[in-house]
Amino acid sequence: MNEPYYEVQDVYRFDLKKPILKEVNVWPCTGRSSSSSGVSFSCPYVFLCLSLLCLIGSLLGHPQCLDYGPPFQPPFHLEFCSAYENFGCCDQERDNSIAAKYWDIMDYIDPRGHKLCGTCIKDILCQECSPYAAHLYDAENPRTPLRSLPGLCFDYCSEFHFNCRSAISLLTSDKHIHECCKTNKTRFCNLLHLHDEDYCFPNVLKNTALNRNLGSVVEDRKGCLQLCLTEVANGLRNPVLMAHANDHTHRMFIAEQVGVIWVYLPDGSRLEEPFLDIRSIVLATPWIGDERGFLGMAFHPKYKYNGKFYIYYSYMDKNRVEKIRISEFKVSASDVNKADPLSERNLLELEEPAANHNGGQLLFGVDGYMYLFTGDGGKAGDPFGKFGNAQNKSALLGKVLRIDVDGKSPDGKPYRIPPDNPFVSDPKARPEVYAYGVRNMWRCAVDRGDPVTKKGRGRIFCGDVGQNRFEEVDIVVKGGNYGWRAKEGFECYDTKLCHNSSLDDVLPIFAYGRNVGKSVTGGYVYRGCESPNLNGLYIFGDFMNGRLMALQEDEKTNKWKKQDICIGSTKACAFPRMIRSYSKFIISFAEDEAGELYFMSTSYPSAYAPHGSLYKFIDPARRAPPGKCKYKPVPVKTKSKRIPFVPRAKTVLELLNEPSTTKPPKKSSTPTAAIPTISSKKAKKTPSTNRKASAVKRAPSGKKRQKIKAEAKPHKPKQEEKVAHTSRTTPVPPLPKKSSHLTRTKKLLPKKSALAKEKLEKRRKESR
């Protein structure tokens, strides 16, 4: 495996202030110098320390339970702590446990005490169910011990101590409280004091700012949805997809552009030996933005029983003609975690006239048929033939194809044509065509449907990469014409064709221009269990600028509303394992067997650069009830060594606990604020250099889904010919004539990232 000599880390994050936490003495009666609030300072500047402590409260005061997870909606009615039955931190079992403790306490209290203190004791015990339980019990600060009693507002605490101090020993077994606070109201209430008065009980219930949208997806002032991430895998070479076999093993199969598929087990470990390695066949180069390589994979719906799966990749035949091949493989009979490399059966081969626009998506619909998504052939403006490949139904390029892999055609093809394909009776059309007029659909997905109603089930969503004005998101329908090259997005591209085009063309559900992004990466409709707030959201992104977005359907108008997704808010993501940054270039999205949503991105879009990572989306505002999303994976025998996952990204909590040594990064104008850095061999001797976000935009990036953003107009074919063999955004040089595509040496890799970017910038300017 060849690796580049440089490392580029483009990450997206929010500003993060990292206060130095001071030691806190939560038991004021244990001696030493104590303030009236029960805090022992080791800082000579009292005012500064108080400011830092207030900052900690503002950073960490967010809905969180004592198990460090987000709150949830209990699946069943809570009989005792009913105030939190709509949203909180207790399920029915925990509610029953608190009720039992309450009645045990009340057995020791006389009838007058029942009337005077019963409600207060119940309220105090039920704070374990509060959405802000972690804050009330000081569980968010790892430097301080967990409180045995929740934080109470001073007036409420004073009244409780005056009327019910005899119940304190029943509420907690802590000897410190028994010895120093049972008879001393001031010490007791100082002990339970919270620095942020908004979060103490019962003020926390009255604070409209804290409770207005409690349990909903958090939005910032600009309407950007606040989600968080966990790092799942790293060190990948341009990860183009992640798939599951739907065999109840909950394994994840991650494919790299070079032609290697890795197996990740439910415990997060990776098997040392790959599931499949066809690097010797796949046409891939180390050039930044080269779209050729291993592009697609889909497991047969009955993989559990027949062991079949399908792949889509670029290769060069013996006559040095570049082609796309779709093949069938089978799993090894001796190892369920390895494919049989000798089992390949070719289903379809397509000659590619240019190196870009290779499509690459394979998927099975709910009808059991396989859908294939091909690009228009490359170059710029689909210059092939009178109307281009995409509008030519006798060509297979620029299409959505549908075939039956479980049968054979009478004419000898290794697949059958579904009898209800829309153009089977059209002598001028290929019977495989299901939809046409697409440019280069990069990443499509089948909607599982609403978990309860099944609404939306079977819809196929795709991101179709545009030419130089618009990116679009489409829902695939049988027989649909998506307009290219006559149209791009909602507007005309080829004016002559556009004026003569049918009014029945299928329009995108959403399209966006250059001010938003330059290369769409199609995503998924979330239908998982762990983040119920996200149900029905179509989440996708843009490869070039790393922007994450979501579409929400208005059921009344059937129109889709777009919102940006912001990752890394310190306050929202202050949970264990959650991170605040991700690599910039978003390559693909994925769904695991349980329906949870992921995306893959890299900091350097070269097929041989091991800078790719897999991230999982998490909604920090609300989770499913404990136990609802548990599943028991079917165990699989592993013959290969397991490599434990070692995270590289620091979590928000780790960063909060680090001493601040540098100034906080500046915010970017994009919703996710890019803070790219470059490091090389020379850079190891000096601190890493920060680059502005504008520098990233100038650097051509490519990747297997970038488009040729050529300025060529459709009526000037000579200009279009100049951009042959280019990526969707950046030029990709042709392979060296004297060496085969298998020659992969470090000599081909740029030794310095700056030099690489200069060359790409020069190529991009030359291609315009």
Structural notes for this entry:
Its main location: secreted. Belongs to the HHIP family. This is HIPL2 protein. This protein is an alpha+beta fold and about 775 residues long. The chain folds into two domains: about 80-205, no CATH class; about 220-655, TolB, C-terminal domain (Neuraminidase), CATH 2.120.10. Helix content is about 15%, strand content about 20%. Strand 18 and strand 19 (about 470-475) form a beta hairpin. Helix 2 (about 90-105) packs antiparallel against helix 3 (about 110-125) and helix 5 (about 155-165) packs across helix 8.
Secondary structure blueprint with pairings:
Layout: E1 7-9, E2 11-12, H1 46-60, H2 92-106, H3 111-125, H4 133-136, H5 154-164, H6 168-171, H7 175-180, H8 185-191, H9 203-206, H10 208-211, E3 225-236, E4 239-243, E5 252-256, E6 260-264, E7 270-271, E8 276-277, E9 294-299, H11 303-306, E10 308-316, E11 322-331, E12 339-351, E13 361-364, E14 370-373, E15 399-403, E16 433-436, E17 441-446, E18 460-464, E19 471-475, E20 487-488, E21 491-492, H12 495-500, E22 510-512, E23 520-525, E24 538-542, E25 548-554, E26 559-567, E27 582-583, E28 585-591, E29 597-602, E30 612-618, E31 642-643, H13 652-656, E32 677-679, E33 689-690, H14 693-698, H15 717-721, H16 753-767
Parallel strand pairs: 3-26
Antiparallel strand pairs: 1-32, 2-27, 3-30, 4-5, 5-6, 6-8, 7-31, 9-10, 10-11, 11-12, 13-14, 14-15, 15-16, 17-18, 18-19, 19-22, 20-21, 23-24, 24-25, 25-26, 28-29, 29-30, 32-33
Helix pairs in contact: 2-3, 5-8
Region (Disordered): 656-768
Domain Glucose/Sorbosone dehydrogenase: 236-564
Domain Folate receptor-like: 77-225
